[in-house]
Prior knowledge:
The complex is a heterodimer.
Chain A: H1 3-12, H2 16-19, H3 22-38, H4 42-58, H5 63-84, H6 88-111, H7 114-124, H8 127-160, H9 165-196, H10 213-236, H11 245-263
Chain B: H1 13-36, H2 39-57, E1 60-61, E2 66-67, H3 71-96, H4 105-130, H5 135-161, E3 174-175, E4 180-181, H6 211-243, H7 245-250
Antiparallel strand pairs in B: 1-2, 3-4
Helix pairs in contact in B: 1-3, 1-4, 2-3, 3-4, 4-5, 5-6
Amino acid sequence: MDVRAIDLSATSGHSRLHGASAAAKLAAFGLVLAAAVLQQNLLVVAACGLLLAALAVGSRLPLRAVFGLAAYPGVFAAVFALAAAPDLLSGAMFAVRAVTAALGAIILVFVTPYPQIFAPLQRVLPEVVGDAMLMTYRSLFLLADKFEHLRLAIRLRSGLSRGHPVRAARASASALGSLVLYAVDLAQREYDVLRIRGYEGGLRVSSPAAASRVFDAGLLLAAGSVFALAVVFRLAGAALTPVSWLPAAFAALVLLVTLAWRLVPR
Amino acid sequence: MSHIHIPDGVLPLWLVAAGWVVTLALLWYASRRARAADVRRKVPLLGVVAALVLVSMSTEIVPIAYHVNLTVVAGVLLGPWLGAIAAFIVVVMLALLGHGGVTVIGLNALMIGIEMALGWGLFRLFVRVLGRPRVRWAAALSTVLTLAVTTTLLVGLVALGGGGAATGRETGALDPNSLTFANPFGAGVISVNTLRGAEPGSAEPVAALSVERFALVVYTLGPLGWLLEALVSAAVLGYVARVRPQLVFGGALAAVPRGPTGDAGVS
């Protein structure tokens, strides 16, 4: 996972979705996730996934990164399905559900900076947890950079010790050990900074206003419609099964139109 | 086993909700304990160790699709209560990256929290029994035992949640036997049966997850992961014990002798 690419997209993107308020995006994500989880009709869950894919395309997100990350849980779901699913269709349902839910979460982090996602969580979680979340976000980039350098060093060293896997393994372990020591030293430095600044608990993140309240309302309406559709299909059960191809066909059409729109040069 | 790779919507709601309730209660209690002493030192340490686990999880051993977890190492550094908080943070961030379901954050955090606490306890026990010079053996044994226990917990979770509404599904116009879609226009476009799918009538009968098959797969592939994780944890903790022993034997919050800065130490 390339957290830098995600952060860059979240902080410097210019789509309407980027400009929406974090609260609206979180609520919309919650509705779509609930729709995917409670739905038992494969085609309706697939429709949710296709609509999310259209949203990613329409927001001009880096598609290779978004769909690459979304496919990852699909692979694990497929393994889980092979190991535990009672039949092929249940297995397919596991995989489609996993990819749909993951796609929703991934779109959320690609259009919303992490601190904005954590801000609402901070209000409901204990103070220490909220603060530690923000510190994790900060440390992640520093450690990822350090780890990249260490991996480069390991690669160079392994190149020198070709045919000596034990030596290369020792070098790798020492590098991971160094990363642990670096992490502890980093925590000490951050503690020093917090002490100087008089930190007593309670880091606060300000939430920027939404670029357009109308878009926020539209986003919530769309997500609410998806959720309502899922509820209707769940409550109606078999009665609506014969027409369950309709939402999937509509979502596929939306995706095709969005793809065509994206291909038009701006 | 570390975090559960079970996707959203597979486990039943009562189990998912129970996971959230227990995790939030644990988080509340762990936070109260963390606030009892110098919180300023704990917050950055929590953040850094959680980030360390996240970075290590992004390292995949490609041929077998296994990634290092360092949960036992994190447990040894943080102890059980701070470990519970770090586990929750790690799981939230992983879920936002699509790695592990969002609804199973509670169960996942519980699983990693147990792994960190158990790893911490077993490591201390083995260090006491084997002695400090055999820190690598202590780390390896505690990792293998911890992962074996949490893998068993995972199988138990699937057994608890298997079947029922979790695996209920309808096919729409999909034939579950042949996995082919029925053509909705097969009987002509203008027809009363146009929108009738391949499955008139009720939904498929609910089938249960195959716990035996799941356990077989997990216990067959799992030991390879346990072994790799044990080797990595042993090497890392062995290295750290050699360079800075108080971190391993006293935890990251043990008193760290601070060197003089600037002119303060110049006599």
